[in-house]
Structures are given as structure tokens and as C-alpha cells.
Amino acid sequence: MPKHIRASALTALTVAALAAGTVLTAPAAGAAPAAAPKFLSASQLPPHPTSAWTAGPVTEGFPEGLGTCVSTEGVPSYDYRHREFRTDLDTNAVQLTVVADTAALAKALAKHYDDLIRTCADRIEKNDPDVEAEGRDYGTLPVEEGAHVRGLHTETSWGATDISLMSVGRDGRTVTVVGWGQMGDFDDAPVAAFKKTTTTAVNKLY
Fold first, then answer.
1. Is the CB of residue 141 less than 8 Å from the CB of residue 135?
2. pLDDT value at position 89?
3. What is the distance between the alpha carbons of residues 74 and 70, in angstroms, rounded to a whole number?
4. Cα(98)–Cα(30) distance, rounded to whole angstroms?
5. 91, 73, 94, 88: which is closest to 22 by C-alpha?
């Protein structure tokens, strides 16, 4: 989520994310189509103290904003949709939705994404000696089939420091990943508000 990790670090992280992923079973042929899941609105994100959120359009494809910790490698070729959000300051957010062919595949996909987020800090430090990273587990949420919230702080040798919150939730066959990030550290993370946003995101899917 943080945008201050330099390009070399991002490249290494992408490779690491690919290696860390578990290959999931390919989608079953002829699976029934599902209704398109709904997305968060700008007003449902953690409030910013000085700037309103702006929501971009719902867009096809995998969002670049999740690429540091989460990737599409090791999973079937699903139809990804996402919406990006921003404020006038250095704060950004993104929501991804993926509809799997069965609830079992969605459960495996949600675990896969959560595992990538859980191990992201270790991969960052392993692949770039100029970046120190720490992950925190903020627990699960009792919404639909469940959601898990985690935090990540990174600090570079040249002084850039970023904090991000990420969550993975599931409703039946649909998985959603929500990310929020800005400059700062764990003290700057709106954990309670982000948990509320995650709960809303999963409830709002259908």
C-alpha cells in the first residue's frame, strides 16, 4: 500500500510475492455467473481529519495499489475489479473484489491473500536491506464468512516511513481485499475506523 518504497523494492517484493503464493485449483468450467459485488463509497472509508475522500470509478483488473503485498500469481485467472480512493493529502485506499467459482475456492483464495499480507514484512526485509518493516495482526471480524485485519509499517534508510492497513474478507464465493495507507507509523493508523470500513465492505458486497 505505501507508495514510498522505491521501485527496486517493489520489483523485489513482486517476485517474493509470487514465490510465496500457493497455486490454487483452477476455476471449474461452466460455473454459474454471480451478481457483481458492490463497492465501498468514499464516505465509508476511515475519516481523514483534514481532507475528504474521493472515489474513483469501479475498474476492471488488479489494482497496482495492492502490489506490494498481494499479487495475482499462484491463483487462477479470475475477473478482478477494483476501486481506488484518495484524499488531497498523502493518503490513499483501494478495494479489490474477486468472485470465485465455489465457496471452497473463495475460502482458499482469502487464506492465500491473508497469508501474503501476514508474511509481507518479512519479504520486504529479505528483499531490500534498505527497508525495515513490521507487521501487526489486528484480529478477525465476525462478518459474513469472516474478515482479518492486519497492519504494515515500513521505514527506508533514507527516512521515508509509511503505515498501511489491509484486510481480507469473504461472503460466500466473493473475496474482497481492502487497503489503506499514508505516511506515518502505527500511532497514525485508524484501526477501529478501518475495522468498521472492512465490516461495511464485506456486508455491502451483496
1. no
2. 86
3. 11
4. 17
5. 73
Residue 57: partners with Cβ closer than 8 Å, 6 or more residues away? 83
pLDDT of residue 8: 34
Q: How high is the mean pLDDT in each 10-residue block of the chain (206 residues)?
A: 40 38 47 77 95 96 87 82 94 96 95 97 94 97 98 95 97 97 96 98 97
| Helix segments in 82-133, DSSP class H | 103-118, 120-127
Which positions ≥6 away from 142 have C-beta within 8 Å?
none
4: phi then psi, degrees, rounded to nearest 5: -95, -5
| CA 139 distance to own-chain centroid | 15
Cell numbers placing 7: 521501485
